[in-house]
Design a protein that fits this description.
- The complex is a heterodimer of chains A (about 220) and B (about 375).
- Chain A has helices at about 10-35, 45-65, 70-75, 80-120, 130-150, 155-185, 190-215.
- Chain A has about 220 residues and is mainly α.
- In chain A, helix 1 runs antiparallel to helix 2 (about 45-65).
- Chain A is elongated, with a radius of gyration of 27 Å.
- Chain B has about 375 residues and is an alpha/beta fold.
- Chain B has 15 helices and ten strands.
- An eight-stranded mixed beta sheet of chain B has the order 1-2-4-3-5-6-9-10, sandwiched between helices. A two-stranded antiparallel sheet of chain B has the order 7-8.
- The model of chain B has no long low-confidence stretch (mean pLDDT about 90).
- The chains are: A mainly alpha (about 220), B alpha/beta (about 375).
């Protein structure tokens, strides 16, 4: 959702809440019916409706009554900050979607591995219960390892793993940005500012190292020799 | 929860509880209930130089007569160097010391937030500082370099840039050629946004790296390994070795952000080292400038750095004395398995001894 389109936050609160709610509902629907349960849910759309209802209650409240007074100040005065909240919610939704997709992949490999082991076990005869226990476990591990290996080497899986990671990082970056916003309000140094100091510090260390080597003195920062 | 479910779960739990009690009774006094020695038993050593957090460690010789050319072991930035000196009977360091080889190791330490701008160039520069310290202490012009994993890549780069200080180069499970898809990590890395990781975290968190390594073989590393532990819980030696390994696995430092970015982008994704296009600091790394005798060590079942990531180095350097040694085992087993120390390392030590004997005085 483009933050630029917000001209007056106070007047568009309910519009944005509604639009975001719909976006979440769509994502939730695809998550429940397309991801974890490809065949749909046993109880129809009831769990989905209940989930979205809860979300709407929570979300509307969060917009109308921000949990921190400072957040109220930010959302009331700074349209960009308000947009940041919405973008964070979208990024979180994407993360959940990617996580679900990954879980489906891993569960499928687990299911196929155990099924394959069971099939092979049912056609094998064992002399003693101990032999059964030992060989059944070995077979179980071997089949699982084979299915997981095939999955982990699949380029599509690698791509989904990359997407999951990127969406996680997106959420973290957006959360960090909000925290930096808060820090700014309290006149506290932000991570970006501290990083700038670290960069300068690193450059200085590098220069000292180079100069001390050029001068033929100690070859590093310090020496115990 | 329905009444039937509650009954069923209650009954299952009671059965499970009884089964566990019976098993424990059978075990008598398993080691985990008594005192276990899971301490890392490092060989005696001292820190002889420091560059910020990075330390140069010198091991106390085990023989009166020490061979003239020392060896510097460089480990990766992920995990800690002491995997090569975990306990007396499983120590590569000790294997060297026992033959009179003078051993130094670089301990990369734990990078803090101010180290996030450290690049591969800084690390190679640090190796150079440490090599100079060793040359001065031992009064030699060249040292032997032994790089393990990512440390092997660093040593190779160093040998191309400062070949005049390298007596011989030993690469142990070192990733050099990233063109093959045989390594799961190589394939995954093509889909991973290294820039975003570093821009978000700064230094790359150890936990993040660990999850990646465990996911390479989740069935063995997250399931079978612990079942195996449970099956051997009465064996004190097994329990102690297991705990030492676990300690090492999860005692991992964060990785300096810019080094990680460069390693992933320039090596894993663009494969610049073997293409002769890798820039380290202001210098281009040309593998043809590596002329020192070369020993390439690989492990057959290495799923982190498969042999085809290490072996191509032999065809890229100008060294005339080139040897490959392969161990039937994995990336870590290569350093810690009893079989490796019994059958494999003596051959490596013989090779290194041959290159540690002839002293070259300082120019």
């Amino acid at each position: 959702m483009a933050t630029e389109s917000i001209s007056n936050c106070n007047s568009v609160d309910s519009d944005y809440a509604e639009k975001t709610y719909k976006a979440w509902a769509e994502l939730g629907k695809s998550f429940f019916t397309g991801g974890l349960f490809p065949g749909g849910l046993a109880g129809g759309d009831q769990p989905l409706e209940s989930w979205t209802k809860n979300f709407r209650g929570l979300y509307d409240k969060a917009m109308a009554f921000p949990p921190f007074p400072v957040a109220g100040g930010m959302t009331g005065q700074d349209p960009k900050a308000y947009g940041e909240y919405i973008d964070l919610a979208k990024a979180q939704a994407e993360l959940y979607g990617n996580w679900a997709s990954m879980m489906v992949d891993l569960s499928k490999a687990w299911f196929e591995g155990t099924t394959s082991a069971s099939t092979k076990l049912s056609s094998t005869k064992f002399e003693t219960p101990e032999a059964y226990r030992r060989q059944a476990y070995d077979l179980f591990i071997k089949e699982l390892e084979s299915k997981f290996d095939a999955l982990l080497r699949d380029k599509k899986f690698a791509s989904r793993l990359g997407n999951l990671l990127s969406s996680y990082l997106e959420v973290k970056q957006r959360s960090d940005r909000l925290v930096e916003g808060y820090m700014g309000l309290f006149n506290m140094p932000t991570r970006t500012e501290i990083d700038r100091v670290y960069k300068e510090l690193h450059e200085l260390k590098r220069t000292v190292r180079r100069l001390s080597r050029e001068s033929g003195g100690k070859s590093g920062d310090e020496s115990d020799e | 929860m329905s009444e039937e479910w509650a009954k069923m779960l209650g009954s299952s739990f009671a059965e499970w509880n009884k089964s566990m009690s019976d098993q424990l009774a059978k075990l008598g006094s398993p080691p985990l209930l008594g005192a276990v020695n899971a301490e890392i038993e490092l060989s005696p050593s001292e820190v002889v130089h420091k560059v910020g957090r990075i330390k140069l460690i010198h091991y106390k010789p085990l023989r009166k007569k020490v061979l003239p050319v020392p060896i510097l072991i460089v480990y990766a930035l992920v995990n800690k160097y002491y995997i090569l000196d975990l306990q007396p009977d499983r120590s590569v360091v000790r294997d060297y010391l026992k033959q009179g080889i003078d051993v130094y190791v670089i301990d990369w330490g734990d990078p803090g937030p101010s180290d996030r701008y450290e690049t591969i160039g800084d690390e190679v520069d640090c190796i150079d500082i440490m090599v100079d310290v060793i040359r001065k202490r031992s009064k030699v012009s060249k040292v032997n370099l032994h790089g393990y994993c990512m440390g092997g890549t660093f040593c190779t780069i160093y040998s191309a840039l400062h070949g005049e200080k390298v007596k011989s180069l030993i690469t142990q499970a070192a990733p050099i050629d990233f063109s093959s898809d045989s390594g799961v990590l190589t394939m995954w890395s093509r889909h991973i946004d290294a820039d975003k990781i570093v821009d978000t975290f700064g230094n790359v968190p150890a936990e993040f790296m660990n999850v990646g390594f465990l996911l390479v073989n989740p069935v063995r590393l997250l399931l079978d390994k612990y079942v195996n532990f449970y099956q051997n819980v009465t064996d004190k030696g097994f329990v102690e070795n297991f705990l030492r390994m676990e300690k090492w696995i999860f005692d991992s430092p964060d990785v300096p952000g810019e080094s990680y970015r460069q390693f992933l982008n320039d090596l894993y994704k663009k494969n610049l080292l073997v293409k002769g296009e890798l820039m380290v600091g202001d210098e281009k790394v040309n593998l043809k400038r590596v002329k020192a005798p070369l020993l390439i060590i690989t492990a057959d079942n290495d799923n982190l750095v498969p042999p085809d990531m290490s072996r191509p180095l032999g065809g890229k350097v100008s060294s005339r004395d080139k040897t490959s040694m392969n161990f039937a085992g994995g990336h870590i087993g290569l350093s810690v398995s009893p079989r490796a120390h019994r059958e494999f390392w003596p051959k490596v030590v013989t090779w290194v001894t041959k290159h540690s004997s002839k002293k070259e005085s300082r120019p």
